[in-house]
Specification:
The protein contains three helices and no strands. It is an all-alpha fold.
Length: 125
């Protein structure tokens, strides 16, 4: 049985050899009309300028609101899972501070030397 093969030329000069899509010159993988996963992700990142508005994370209620915002954006497909993972890790760190009764360190502008809050809220330079 004869079938048309994909006309995509590989880096070594050989042709792909997979069956071409019906009525087209390329297979599913090499079809130029088929957007790649990389292109879809790039478009999603470009269109995704979602900025979450968190309250200052000082209480458990503030943490719950922030967690809800992240989960809501993730389930609505408004946020990349990798970005959500990083935000959830940050929220987990805040929850550990709240659980231990340590105050949340204030946001300090970047400078040559930042204080460290290793001893539950007492800055040491």
């Amino acid at each position: 049985m004869s079938y048309p093969s994909c006309n995509h030329r590989m880096a070594d000069g050989s042709f792909c050899g997979s069956p071409a899509l019906r009525g087209q010159r390329f297979c599913y993988f090499h079809n130029p009309q088929q957007p790649s996963q990389r292109q879809l992700a790039k478009n999603r990142r470009r269109a995704n300028t979602l900025r979450l508005q968190f309250p200052p994370l000082q209480t458990w209620q503030d943490l719950q609101i922030a967690l809800w915002e992240v989960m809501n954006a993730l389930t609505d497909d408004r946020m990349d899972p990798a970005r959500a993972s990083a935000l959830l890790f940050g929220l987990q760190q805040v929850s550990l501070h709240l659980q231990n009764g340590c105050p949340i360190p204030p946001i300090i502008p970047c400078g040559p030397q930042l204080p460290s809050f290793g001893n539950c809220g007492k800055p040491s330079l």
